[in-house]
């Protein structure tokens, strides 16, 4: 490994060229150095660039192309239909239901998880015995596979299952619903499962953000006579701003793509009626399983455009300052 | 801090911490314990405790189902993804952190753009492409796209780490005869081990839990991963509630164990991602 780049080490080369190089020789060494540098740059980045372009960027390009055809996935697509697939999608009430469900999940996740996570994180932002264990336990739902969590809740929520039994034993039997079959209830059940799965992530993220706030600030606020509540309201929450916005961003993108939990928890019949479908489940149901490849790809493009535009807008207006280092700024 | 707020808030803190922790893990504990009951027991009293405790469900899953095969498939795919992400990510992040050249920031932005690309949306064309490459029903069909979709975050996390190492160290290494690659291998990588572990753990967990991509590209049951196995088992033996609970518990176990050991890295990685 030592000799991989001798041109960089003056000590190693010193023996070869005589003292007092002529200018022409010096420039040729520099040219060799530059060429070598470019070899390294290209050689080291090319594998990553190829894999990234091929499996992240190219497929989306193909999706746009396929979406313009009526195509069952056999042989090359030939039946060009222009934007018909897009028009069809927006005329399908089930797809409109899926859009509505995604909106419910996006807004519901933000409105339910945000306040819970913020309250818990602020109240628990102190040393107490078992804090490490607490962090571990709260994070468990997030680490579980979506499928595992989905199946688990499916079993718990079946008719006359554990949840119903618990509610009855608490004297709340009147609340019992067909959680996974009632078309008006199922999307809210999904929102509940998603909240359970992801609120721990929000709590941990906010706790991590709070641990970056210097102790001196809270002490200074206390000296100035601020109550605990005032300190949280005027010191902690504003300082948490960047963390909160990043969480909102991640939550929003995740909600727009919600698939696994809904796929395994709600039965296909309920999904196909639109009660619990999301854009992603609708896309896989129609594109992959019903073999409507052109149509499915059109849905993929719609999903992509919605997510991408939402991400760009969010970044443009809310996130710019927070991830300057990551997306727009330069290192050093 | 004065004493008074601590005095009243401590019981409240504990009560809240306990409540949140209980809600988080109660369902998981229920599933694990439920695996020790029989299906008739569960049907008669869904919220009860095992009486008597039955080992049969777990034994059945471990000996008669495809659990081990699926766990092995998951492990191979997750390891392949992790190694690929770390190697490709380190190489790219190294260049972006320690070389000065025209177009460097452009290349970085090009990679970070991937953070905005929803992996779910690309799944149909991805399937078609993998089919055309005849990669369907192979480990590569899962590993390669997973590497690709993990690369942006990996590079975003690694680059600041790699560029934080002082220039003087690089110069010192050069004087001692190490080239730039020698510097990467002998000094930079050992120094940035925490960051490497973080991106590795994130990629591993994401791959271990992945469902949508394997669902589409691994039609061959011999290649199924654990998430597919859980889903299949639960839809195949719908009446065997106890068996499903046992299978689900066993499928959760590796992720839970792995997480217990790597919790710091995961949280650290999230923090790193937040800070950019």
TrEMBL record, chain A:
The keyword Membrane applies. The chain crosses the membrane at residues 38-66, 103-124, 136-156, 185-208, 246-264, 292-314. InterPro entries: ABC_transporter_permease, MetI-like, MetI-like_sf. It is found in: Cell membrane. Residues 99-314 form the ABC transmembrane type-1 domain. Residues 1-25 are annotated as: Disordered. Keywords: Cell membrane, Membrane, Transmembrane, Transmembrane helix, Transport. It is a multi-pass membrane protein. GO terms for biological process: transmembrane transport. The keyword Membrane applies. Its main location: membrane. Residues 9-19 have a biased composition (Low complexity). GO terms for cellular component: plasma membrane. Belongs to the binding-protein-dependent transport system permease family. This is Sugar ABC transporter permease.
């Amino acid at each position: 490994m030592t000799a991989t780049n001798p041109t960089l080490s003056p000590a190693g080369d010193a023996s070869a060229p005589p003292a007092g190089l002529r200018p022409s020789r010096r420039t040729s060494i520099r040219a060799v150095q530059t060429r070598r540098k470019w070899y390294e740059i290209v050689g080291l980045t090319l594998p990553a660039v190829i894999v990234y372009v091929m499996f992240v960027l190219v497929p989306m390009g193909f999706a746009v192309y396929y979406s313009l055809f009526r195509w069952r996935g056999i042989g090359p697509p030939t039946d060009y239909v222009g934007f018909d697939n897009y028009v069809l999608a927006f005329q399908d009430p089930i797809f409109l239901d899926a859009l509505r469900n995604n909106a419910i999940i996006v807004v519901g996740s933000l409105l339910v998880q945000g306040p819970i996570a913020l309250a818990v994180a602020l109240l628990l932002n102190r040393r107490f015995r078992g804090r490490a264990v607490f962090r571990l336990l709260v994070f468990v739902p997030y680490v579980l596979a979506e499928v595992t969590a989905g199946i688990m809740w499916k079993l718990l929520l079946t008719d006359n299952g554990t949840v119903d039994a618990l509610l009855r034993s608490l004297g709340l039997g009147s609340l019992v619903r067909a959680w996974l079959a009632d078309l008006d209830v199922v999307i809210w059940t999904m929102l509940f499962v998603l909240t359970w799965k992801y609120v721990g992530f929000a709590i941990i993220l906010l706790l991590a953000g709070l641990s970056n706030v210097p102790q001196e600030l809270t002490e200074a606020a206390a000296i100035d006579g601020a109550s605990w509540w005032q300190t949280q309201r005027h010191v902690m929450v504003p300082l948490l701003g960047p963390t909160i916005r990043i969480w909102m961003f991640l939550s929003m993108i995740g909600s727009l793509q919600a698939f696994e939990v809904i796929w395994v928890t709600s039965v296909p019949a309920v999904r196909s009626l639109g009660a619990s479908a999301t854009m992603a489940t609708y896309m896989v149901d129609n594109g992959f399983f019903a073999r409507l490849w052109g149509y499915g790809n059109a849905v993929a493009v719609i999903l992509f455009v919605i997510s991408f535009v939402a991400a760009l807008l969010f970044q443009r207006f809310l996130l710019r300052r927070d991830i300057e280092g990551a997306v727009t700024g330069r290192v050093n | 801090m004065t004493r008074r707020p601590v005095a009243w808030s401590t019981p409240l803190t504990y009560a809240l911490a306990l409540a949140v922790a209980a809600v988080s893990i109660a369902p998981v504990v229920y599933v694990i314990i439920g695996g020790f009951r029989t299906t008739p027991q569960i049907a008669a009293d869904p919220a009860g405790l095992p009486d008597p405790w039955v080992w049969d469900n777990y034994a059945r899953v471990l000996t008669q189902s495809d659990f081990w095969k699926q766990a092995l498939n998951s492990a191979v795919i997750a390891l392949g993804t992790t190694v690929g992400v770390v190697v490709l990510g380190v190489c790219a992040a190294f260049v972006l952190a320690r070389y000065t050249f025209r177009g460097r920031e452009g290349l970085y932005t090009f990679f970070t753009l991937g953070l905005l690309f929803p992996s779910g949306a690309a799944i149909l064309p991805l399937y078609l492409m993998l089919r055309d490459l005849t990669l369907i029903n192979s480990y590569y069909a899962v590993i390669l796209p997973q590497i690709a979709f993990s690369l942006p975050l990996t590079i975003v996390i690694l680059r600041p780490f790699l560029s934080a190492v002082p220039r003087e160290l690089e110069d010192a290494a050069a004087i001692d005869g190490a080239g730039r690659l020698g510097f990467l291998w002998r000094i930079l990588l050992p120094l940035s081990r925490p960051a490497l572990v973080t991106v590795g753990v994130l990629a591993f967990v994401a791959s271990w839990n992945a469902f949508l991509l394997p669902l589409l590209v691994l039609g061959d049951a011999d290649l199924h991963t654990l998430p597919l196995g859980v889903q299949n088992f639960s839809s195949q033996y719908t009446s065997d509630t106890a068996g499903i609970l046992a299978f689900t518990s066993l499928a959760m176990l590796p992720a839970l164990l792995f997480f217990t050991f790597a919790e710091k890295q995961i949280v650290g990685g999230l923090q790193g991602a937040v800070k950019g």
